[in-house]
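Let us work through a complete example step by step.
Step 1: write down the sequence.
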Amino acid sequence: MKVVAFAVGSYGDVEPFIVLGAKMRERGHVYSVVTFPEFRERVENVGLLFYRIPGDLNIMVSTLLADSDNSTETGIRGLKRVYEDVDGIITCFEQACRDADLLIFMQFSKIAYHFGEKYGIPCVRSFVFPSDPTKQFSALFSKAKENSIWTKWSYYLCDFFMSLAEKDCVDQVRNYLHLSRWHWYSNYTRLGKEKLLTLYQYSPTLAPRSPKWGKHIQITGPWYSEEDDIAYEPSKELKTFLEHGEPPIYIGFGSMNYKKMDELGDVIHKALRVSGVRAVLSGELNSKGRYCNDQQVFYVDFVPFSWLFPQVKGVVSHGGNGTVHYSLRSGKPTWVLSFGADQFFWGCRVHATGSGPYPLDIKKDAITAEVLAVGFKELYAADMQLHATRVQAQMLLDGGVDKACELLEDYMGRKKEKNRND
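Step 2: predict the structure and record it as tokens.
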């Protein structure tokens, strides 16, 4: 089976599709990833085919997340920038789709659907947060009242805003493909009369499955591969820091290229001094080298989460799906300081399990040393540690990438059987 995954986004968005591809390749399938050039080496190192998508990864992350004011208007403008090179998108997507048996798209690569429609290629949706309507909670309107009709309607509102952002690109793509007009109320949940298989890359422990969803919607758990981290050898200095003194927390914000990261780093450093909490911190919080490593703080450039998190007491992150699941699967209390998109939602879901303090919004809440110091200390609380351990036990039962592979193979097997019978 020839599978093509269209992964448009940051490292946390793209890496799961690479992990899926590596596992599908092990099972005898040919797998391609359409993504930004920054991920080419990673894609090809695991034996997958790479196709370059037009656009700038750093501009996308900055515009939609790190430096966005998170307003609807800014979001729409940012998404339009993602889709502005229509000719490049058409060339790339059409080339990638050639001879494909299955297309997988995510929230920023729905354009692939139209090529699937044109060439009769089955499509699968896959997201890192709930995108099908439910009253339970709203991923992008995370402060909406849970179990309310407004929460359910917020999903339709998100789809409408996405349609506005994509409209020019979709119209040109469908015109090029000689397809009928795409209406604002059209959606990506069906291809013809058939509902698309939908794979959610998160744990039902954090976001339980809606009882209203059909069987075509499956929650697999996150897609991880820890094999690449087995050979990691930390520096002598880092090993010494971890082995001496109270277990530290980890503080880092992934690929958030926030223009005020140095200022945030200053506040965090002060909060650690106020609280007395020890910490391993991501290097972007000390990009100007203002602070030296000592017995309380240790800045690192890169450490695999699967190696580091079992050795810390808690995790403070931006709330990306991958980081949140990594920390909780390691049994660590988790505190989210969000920058936008679904990050605050994941912070709320962590808090709902009792495994972390209530999340803060970096751009809207008061981020002071005193506030952070209190939150850092909370991560050491016995009840929070206990809840995180319970969540860990439940998450370890998730099928993850293996379940995703099985669902994809079953989906395509049933389609082939149906085609033979038609």
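Step 3: interpret the result. The mean pLDDT is 90.
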